[in-house]
Amino acid sequence: MLIHSNWLQALSLSMLCVQSASAAGPAAPAADPNGARQEFVAAMQRIRLNLPETPDSRALEAYAIHGYLVAARFRRDLIKKPDEGLVAAVDQFMQTHAGQQVTRALRRDWLASLAQRRRWDWFLPRSADVADPSLVCDRLEGRLATGDTEGLGLAAIARWSLPQKQPAECNAVFAWLRQPPARRLPPPTRRAPVRNSSRPCNAYA
Description:
The chain is mostly helical and 205 residues long. It has 2 domains: 94 residues; 87 residues, no CATH class. The protein is built from 10 helices and no strands. α2 runs parallel beside α4. The longest helix is centred in the first third of the chain and has 22 residues. It is elongated and about 65 Å long. The C terminus is likely disordered.
């Protein structure tokens, strides 16, 4: 998962989403006497340049798209310091803004960070509907790591059978699938390199 390498590009895309959301939102006054928009743009620039934060003013906190700034800060912090407090804060943000555009990129980065740190207790209950190939494979690996193997073989075969190159996140579960049924135990290490050139012989055993 390339969270760090994709983050700046994603931040630029989020700025485009911000502009679209602003254009689609309720009509704003012709002038912004509190400078909330300028403060918003400056805060997003500090995130992009990795500069120290300044406290948000009341006007900025009340700004219609302030949530995009909060989400951008969370995405940056998932790279820099993904601690327990951040995990809980992102979870609360996701619940508060469930189904909203502002959560889309953040949710993917958050789940990817949880999977990288093998926080299956957080990842699995929150990833049942993922469609991103890497996250789907993370989910398979999480099920394997936690011993949830009922139906896992068929799910892994369904993933392996897709006519596309599979993410490295699937390597561990594919390696497990190639083992004889009696030896199918959760792997001690994550993402051991495995070649995907042949159909697993014991997939249906």
